[in-house]
C-alpha cells in the first residue's frame, strides 16, 4: 500500500512540474511584452528579456505624442464600441430569439443562407464594402459602425444556442394565458436572456478594440491619424510608418499594454460564457 | 423535434381570384394595394401602393439605366479625345467608372428581386382577402393587422432591420465581389473594365497564377489540418492534466493559459514576431545559454521556408491550445464517470482509458466545432499576416510567400503592387467552394456517425 501512495505522490509531483513548465512557456512572451513596455530604449529594438533600464517614459510618451494621437484613438474607439455594441446586441438578440423560439416559413432557409454566407471569406465583402461606403461618402467612423452592426445579423449562433436551452414550455404557458408573442418576448424572453445579452454586448464592445483590418481599410483613406481607432492606429504605428516605427517601438508596446489589460480581464471573466457558446454551437439541430 | 405541419389545401387559386374577384381585386394584380384599400386595410394598402409608386419612379429615373449599363459596364473603356461637332472643339472623355456602374447595377438587381418578392406577397394577401370574403369570414381591420405584427408576425417585425443589414452589408458586397470575378478588373483596367466570362478563373487555374495557386492551396490545406489537429490534441491533453486528480487551484492554472488567448491578436502576434526576430530576445537568450552558435532565422524574409512554416504552426499552438483546453475542460467535467470506472475496474491503465474512452467521447462532442475550426483555419488571416506577413518570399510565386495562405494571398492581390482584383475575387469564390465542400462532407459524416 505504501508503494501505491509513493507512486501517487511521484505522479502528482511530475504532473505539477510539467504544468509549471508549460505555464512558464505560455506566459513568458506575455510577461516579456509587459517588461518591454517599461524598458528604456533608443534603438527601437528590444533584444533582451529583462530591460537594462526601467522607465515610465514610454507611457508618458504615448499619451503626449504629437504624431500619434493616442487619446483621440481611445475616444474614437470608445464611441464606435459603445454605439455598435448597443445596436449589434439589439440585432443579435432579436435574430437569435426569433430563430430559436418562433416558427415561421422562412426559418430554415434563413438558417441555411446564414451558414452559406459565413463560408465566404470575410475579405471579399470587406473590399466590396470599401467601394460601397466610398460611393456613399461614408469612409469614416459612422461607416465603420454601420459595417459592424450590419454584420451582427449573422452572428447569432452563440445566442441562439443559449435560447435553445430554455424550455419552450414556458412560452407555451404564456401563450395559454393569452400573452401575445411580443409580450412573451419582452416579459419572458428578454429577462431570461440577461447572461447572453451581457456576453453579446461585451463581445460586440471588444470587437472594435481589436479589429485592425476592417478599421484600417475603411479609415486609412482619410489619411488623418486623428480619425483612427486604437487597433489600427497602433498597427499603423509599427507598420505603415516604416523608418520611424523603430523609434517609437517601445511606446507602441506601452500603448498595447494599456489596451490589452482591460480586454484581457474582460475576456478572462467571460470565459465561461465563451465555452458555453462553443459547445452549444457544437450540437447542431 | 418539430413535426412538419400537414400542408393546408390552398384556399383559392390565382386563376379563381382573377376570374371571380371584383374590380379592385383585379386591379391589384397591377396596382399593388388596391384590394386592401377597398377593404379598409389602409395601412397595408397604402404601404403596398407607396412602395410600388416609389419603385416605378426610381426605375424610370435611374433603375433602368443602372440595369442596362450592367450589360456593358460602361461603353467608354479608355481615356479618349473626341471632336465635338456641336461645339466645334476637341474634348477629353474620361472612361466610364465600371466600379460604380457594377455596384449600382447589382444594387438595382437586388431591388428588383425584392420588389418581385413584395409583389408575390401582395398577391398572396389579395388571394387571402378574396377567400375570406368568399367564405363570408371576418376581414381583419387595420388595428388587428397591426396587432399581428406583435403577435403572429412578430418574426417579421424583429427580423426586418437585421435582414436589411445583412442584405446591405453581406449579400450586396458578396454578390458584388462574385461578379467582379467575371470581369477584367485589374491594374491594366483600373477604371473602365468589361465582362470577360471565365477568363479570370482560367488564369488562376491554368494561367499565370496556377503556379502560385496550387502550391499555396496545398500549404493552406496542410496548415489547416496541422493547426486544427495540434491545437485540439494538445488542448485535450492540457485539459486532462489540469483536471487530473490532486492538482489544486485548477481555475488559477486555467486562467494562466487563457490570458494568452485573451490578449488581442494584433498585439500578441506582432510582439511574437519581434520575439522571434533574428536579433530578438529568444535568439539572444538561446545564444547566452550556449544552446545555439548562430541565431536562428525563424520567420524573417531570409528564413528557411520549412522552419518558417513549422514556427507558424507552433506559434498557432501557443494561441490555439488554450481555447481547446477550455472547451475540452467543459466536456471532461460532464463526461459520464461510470464508463471510466468500469474500464478502471477491468484493469485498464490511464493511457488506455484516455485512448479508448475519454478521447473518443471528447472527439464526438467536438466534431462539429472542429469542422468549424478547420474552416476558420483555412481563412486564418491574423496568424500569417501579423506573424510572418507571408515571408519568406518565394520567387517562383506570383505575389505570395512560402507561409502565405489563400486568404493572405487574396489580400496581397488586392492591396499589393499587382492589384489583380478579378483574380482575388476568383480566389474568394474558390475558397468558398473548398470550405463548403469540406463542411458538407464532414457534416454528412458526423450525422451518419450520430445516427449509427
Strand-and-helix sequence of chain B, N→C? HHHHEEHHHHHHHHHHHHHH
Helix content of chain A: over 70%
Q: Multimeric state of these chains?
A: heterodimer
Order of helices and strands of chain A: HHHHHHHHHHHHH
- How does the helix and strand content of chain B classify structurally? mainly alpha
Class from secondary-structure proportions of chain A: mainly alpha
Overall, the morphology of chain B is flat
Mean pLDDT of chain B: 84
What does this structure look like?
The complex is a heterodimer of chains A (285) and B (452). By secondary structure, chain A is mainly α. Helix content of chain A is 73%, strand content 0%. In chain A, helix 3 (70-101) runs antiparallel to helix 10, helix 7 runs parallel beside helix 13 and helix 10 (194-210) runs antiparallel to helix 13. Chain A is flat. Chain A starts with a helix and ends with a helix. Chain B has 452 residues and is mainly α. Chain B has helices at 14-20, 23-27, 34-38, 42-70, 98-134, 142-148, 154-180, 199-205, 210-243, 250-262, 265-275, 281-289, 305-333, 337-345, 350-378, 381-387, 406-415, 421-451; strands at residues 80-84, 89-93. Chain B has a two-stranded antiparallel ribbon with strand order 1-2. In chain B, helix 5 (98-134) packs antiparallel against helix 7. Chain B is flat and about 90 Å long. The chains are: A mainly alpha (285), B mainly alpha (452). At the A-B interface, helix 1, helix 3, helix 4, helix 5 and helix 6 of A face helix 5, helix 7, helix 9, helix 10 and helix 11 of B.
In short, what is this structure?
Chain A is an all-alpha fold. Chain A contains 13 helices and no strands.
How would you describe this structure in keywords?
heterodimer; A: 285 residues; mainly alpha; 13 helices; 73% helix; disordered C terminus; B: 452 residues; two-stranded antiparallel sheet; 68% helix
Amino acid at each position: 500500500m505504501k508503494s501505491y501512495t509513493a507512486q501517487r505522490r511521484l505522479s502528482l509531483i511530475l504532473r505539477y512540474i510539467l504544468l509549471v513548465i508549460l505555464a512558464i512557456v505560455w506566459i513568458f512572451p506575455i510577461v516579456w511584452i509587459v517588461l518591454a513596455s517599461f524598458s528604456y530604449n533608443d534603438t527601437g529594438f528590444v533584444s533582451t528579456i529583462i530591460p537594462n533600464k526601467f522607465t515610465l517614459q514610454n507611457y508618458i510618451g504615448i499619451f503626449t505624442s504629437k504624431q500619434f494621437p493616442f487619446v483621440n484613438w481611445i475616444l474614437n474607439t470608445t464611441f464606435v464600441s459603445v454605439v455598435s455594441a448597443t445596436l449589434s446586441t439589439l440585432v443579435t438578440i432579436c435574430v437569435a430569439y426569433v430563430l430559436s423560439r418562433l416558427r415561421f416559413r422562412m426559418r430554415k432557409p434563413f438558417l441555411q443562407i446564414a451558414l452559406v454566407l459565413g463560408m465566404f471569406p470575410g475579405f471579399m465583402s470587406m473590399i466590396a464594402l470599401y467601394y460601397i461606403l466610398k460611393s456613399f461618402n461614408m469612409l469614416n467612423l459612422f461607416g465603420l459602425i454601420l459595417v459592424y452592426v450590419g454584420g451582427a445579423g449573422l452572428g447569432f449562433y452563440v445566442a441562439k444556442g443559449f435560447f435553445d436551452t430554455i424550455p419552450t414550455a414556458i412560452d407555451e404557458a404564456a401563450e395559454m394565458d393569452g400573452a401575445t408573442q411580443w409580450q412573451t418576448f419582452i416579459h419572458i424572453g428578454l429577462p431570461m436572456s440577461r447572461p447572453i445579452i451581457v456576453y453579446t454586448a461585451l463581445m460586440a464592445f471588444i470587437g472594435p478594440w481589436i479589429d485592425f483590418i476592417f478599421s484600417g481599410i475603411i479609415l486609412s483613406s482619410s489619411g488623418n491619424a486623428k480619425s483612427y481607432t486604437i487597433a489600427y492606429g497602433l498597427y499603423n504605428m509599427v507598420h505603415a510608418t516604416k523608418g520611424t516605427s523603430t523609434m517609437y517601438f517601445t511606446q507602441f508596446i506601452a500603448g498595447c499594454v494599456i489596451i490589452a489589460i482591460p480586454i484581457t480581464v474582460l475576456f478572462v471573466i467571460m470565459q465561461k460564457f465563451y465555452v458555453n457558446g462553443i459547445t452549444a454551437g457544437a450540437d447542431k439541430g | 423535434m418539430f413535426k412538419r405541419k400537414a400542408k393546408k389545401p390552398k384556399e383559392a387559386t390565382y386563376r379563381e381570384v382573377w376570374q371571380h374577384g371584383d374590380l379592385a381585386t383585379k386591379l391589384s394584380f397591377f396596382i399593388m394595394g388596391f384590394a386592401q384599400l377597398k377593404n379598409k386595410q389602409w395601412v397595408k394598402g397604402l404601404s403596398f401602393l407607396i412602395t410600388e409608386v416609389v419603385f416605378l419612379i426610381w426605375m424610370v429615373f435611374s433603375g433602368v439605366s443602372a440595369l442596362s449599363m450592367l450589360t456593358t459596364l460602361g461603353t467608354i473603356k479608355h481615356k479618349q479625345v473626341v471632336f465635338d461637332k456641336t461645339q466645334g472643339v476637341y474634348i477629353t472623355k474620361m472612361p466610364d467608372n465600371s466600379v460604380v456602374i457594377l455596384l449600382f447595377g447589382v444594387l438595382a438587381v437586388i431591388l428588383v428581386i425584392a420588389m418581385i418578392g413584395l409583389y408575390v406577397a401582395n398577391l398572396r394577401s389579395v388571394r387571402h382577402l378574396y377567400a375570406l370574403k368568399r367564405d363570408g369570414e371576418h376581414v381583419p381591420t387595420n388595428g388587428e393587422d397591426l396587432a399581428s405584427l406583435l403577435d403572429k408576425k412578430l418574426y417579421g417585425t424583429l427580423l426586418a432591420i437585421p435582414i436589411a443589414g445583412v442584405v446591405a452589408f453581406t449579400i450586396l458586397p458578396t454578390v458584388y465581389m462574385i461578379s467582379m470575378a467575371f470581369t477584367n478588373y485589374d491594374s491594366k483596367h483600373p477604371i473602365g473594365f468589361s465582362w470577360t466570362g471565365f477568363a479570370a478563373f482560367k488564369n488562376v487555374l491554368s494561367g499565370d497564377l496556377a503556379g502560385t495557386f496550387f502550391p499555396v492551396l496545398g500549404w493552406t490545406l496542410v496548415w489547416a489540418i496541422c493547426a486544427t489537429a495540434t491545437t485540439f490534441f494538445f488542448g485535450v491533453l492540457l485539459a486532462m492534466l489540469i483536471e487530473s486528480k490532486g492538482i489544486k487551484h485548477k481555475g488559477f492554472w486555467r486562467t494562466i493559459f487563457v490570458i494568452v488567448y485573451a490578449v488581442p491578436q494584433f498585439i500578441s502576434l506582432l510582439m511574437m514576431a519581434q520575439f522571434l526576430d533574428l536579433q530578438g530576445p529568444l535568439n539572444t537568450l538561446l545564444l547566452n545559454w550556449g544552446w545555439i552558435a548562430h541565431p536562428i532565422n525563424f520567420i524573417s524574409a531570409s528564413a528557411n521556408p520549412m522552419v518558417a512554416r513549422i514556427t507558424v504552426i507552433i506559434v498557432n499552438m501557443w494561441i490555439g491550445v488554450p481555447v481547446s483546453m477550455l472547451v475540452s475542460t467543459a466536456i471532461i467535467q460532464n463526461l459520464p464517470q461510470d464508463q471510466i470506472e468500469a474500464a478502471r475496474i477491468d484493469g485498464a491503465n490511464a493511457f488506455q482509458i484516455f485512448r479508448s474512452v475519454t478521447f473518443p467521447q471528447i472527439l464526438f462532442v467536438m466534431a462539429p466545432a472542429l469542422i468549424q475550426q478547420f474552416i476558420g483555419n483555412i481563412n486564418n488571416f491574423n496568424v500569417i499576416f501579423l506573424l510572418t506577413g507571408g515571408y519568406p518570399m518565394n520567387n517562383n510565386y506570383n505575389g505570395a510567400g512560402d507561409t502565405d495562405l489563400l486568404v493572405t494571398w487574396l489580400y496581397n492581390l488586392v492591396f499589393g503592387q499587382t492589384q489583380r482584383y478579378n483574380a482575388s475575387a476568383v480566389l474568394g469564390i474558390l475558397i468558398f467552394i473548398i470550405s463548403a465542400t469540406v463542411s458538407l462532407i464532414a457534416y454528412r459524416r458526423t450525422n451518419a456517425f450520430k445516427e449509427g
